[in-house]
Amino acid sequence: MDDSSRSRLLVFNRCKQVEDPDVDGVGWEPLRDFHHGSRISAMAWSPETNLTSMPRVLRLCFAENDKKVRLISSDMKDDDQVQVLGEHRDYINCVSFQPDQGALVASASDDLTCQVWGLDGQQAACFTLTAPGMAVCWHPQEPGKVMVAEKKGIIRFYHVQTQQPIMSLDCSHIPLLSADWCLGNSLRVAAVAGTDWFIFDTSRSSRPLENEQAHDTGCRAVKWCQSQDYLLATTGGRPPQLKVFNIKANQLTLNTELEASGGLSWHFRLPIVAIGGDCKVHLWHTGNVRYVRGLG
Fold this sequence. Notes:
WD40_rpt, mitosis, WD40/YVTN_repeat-like_dom_sf
């Protein structure tokens, strides 16, 4: 949770099981309070983060308005470290960890580059884009590849080691503001551009197989559910809206409004979607469509 007004990064741990039907909501305990320099524009958790067994490790990367990518590491005792991994020439829109070992971090920026950094701060790759990079994703089944979405509606795949392009997808709509690579099906990619979401099957076509209007005044973000690959969350609209689509049943599962919105993510094992808004993190369980809790 980023408290930008006070330049703080707050990390919480869940202390009650949301799977328990007798528990009304979710309990949380603060784990760490990191103070940083400016507003965070993007953040990603490392797959090396481990809070359930010894030695405990908390690791995440984030981008700030000073155009730098930073890595936070903590042993949850007395050793908290913050290091600069790299820097862009313009605003950074997205950061993402390589999913298998977390040894690389990719960042996409308005400076028309996607850069890949090692945890030692050395640049491992740099891809020149033709429009601002709005999203960057890895996939555990394709660890040597990175997906980069450009604002002009093009989604490109690159081989990190050779730095060669592999393929591209085209929404034919602008502006593309977000894209995501489906964890449960590596052939599926989703994007939002203009008022619509788009779904691609990379084995069949470079053109979208499905698209549907999500927010009539424009979409902002899109995320696949990590536990159920037929659920797709989007944000956008005025006032800000959160919607969850069941693309298998062609149904709108969740449609709610917030006073403000920022960030979008899913629980790793459960169909719980989270979104920031009005100094809180709001959680919805889409399995039985209920509001879980506002954390903040």
